[in-house]
Amino acid sequence: MPESLPPDSVGLVTPQTIAFEEPLTLACGQTLGRYDLVVETYGTLNADASNAVLICHALSGHHHAAGYHSPEDRKPGWWDSCIGPGKPIDTNRFFVVSLNNLGGCNGSTGPMSLNPDTDRPYGPDFPVITVADWVHSQARLADHLGITQWAAVVGGSLGGMQALQWSLTYPDRLRHAVVIASTPRLTAQNIAFNEVARKAITSDPDFHNGRYHDYGTLPRRGLMLARMVGHITYLSDASMGEKFGRELRDQAFKFGYDVEFQVESYLQYQGERFSESFDANTYLLMTRALDYFDPAYDFDNNLSEALKQARCEFLVLSFSTDWRFTPARSEELVNAMIAARRKVSYAEIDAPWGHDAFLIPTPRYTDAFGAYMSRVAREVNA
């Protein structure tokens, strides 16, 4: 971390763990008798609790979205570029809540947590979670914080699915939903990518049917491969070419199968780092939640009928080179919102970084995002 904090940083932040004792019935039919959610907050909640913004994270995200955990931190939260004083989600104007979802591996109750029925980690016995389950747990979090209605629910990728689900499940509990680099449902190709990633994990000899903790092992190779596959889909061809091209590590062919190209080295590094910081069972849960998300399913596959449940206004943002969740998927969502007579603003951002572009503060992106959130803030103070 720099010697002094940047003026647009939320500064040093401390996560808190909130325990919920009321049982939560899940879409799969199972019930969690109790559970914890790990949360960070930034900014100050106003007197009537009308300036609260919920941040929903993507597949490998967590509660640490902005600021620093200690003076020794060298890396801020994962969305620090968009959360802080003067940033699109301005903490001088909003009270921002970011959490680690149920099933996560960063402190909230998930597969790594102790199962109270066995006194051992849940492992593969942790129930399958859906986006709707997350939203129900987040609604209870809002109750705990004294927030009856969010000024906005905001998320990118899988987080955008949660923002959309909020608008349908609790239509009177948010005024705006911001859906970034997301989709109303996965394509067959996306489901296929997720299945390849899961198969890489479950085929690892150290997976042990999800009970690897009982054997003192971790399926590092499988999780590494899953992350490598996923990471390829988060980047565009252009961004990978710009970063690596066809550069060789040692400027000469070795005529073997070890790592020779810079892009191979990069993917291995990303995979190895991820395999030591993320839980394999959580990865399985998160990708399956992605697969299952389809708000039109209960409305005869009619997305516009599903969206008639919503009462909030929407901002939808897509990125030109995102081939994981293409602009066409965002346009499908926007067209359904228009057919449902919902209020929606939409922009496709020209950016070369693929799906990861929602994490990168390009000017047109932050300008569009910031202008919309400024309008949300003005409504709070009207």
TrEMBL record:
Substrate binds at residues 227, 356. It is an enzyme of class 2 (transferase). Keywords: Acyltransferase, Amino-acid biosynthesis, Cytoplasm, Methionine biosynthesis, Transferase. It catalyses: L-homoserine + succinyl-CoA = O-succinyl-L-homoserine + CoA. The active site is at 157 (nucleophile), 322, 355. InterPro entries: AB_hydrolase_1, AB_hydrolase_fold, HAT_MetX-like. Its EC number is 2.3.1.46. Residues 51-359 form the AB hydrolase-1 domain. It comes from the Bacteria. Transfers a succinyl group from succinyl-CoA to L-homoserine, forming succinyl-L-homoserine. Homodimer. This is Homoserine O-succinyltransferase. The lineage of its organism: Bacteria, Pseudomonadati, Pseudomonadota, Gammaproteobacteria, Pseudomonadales.
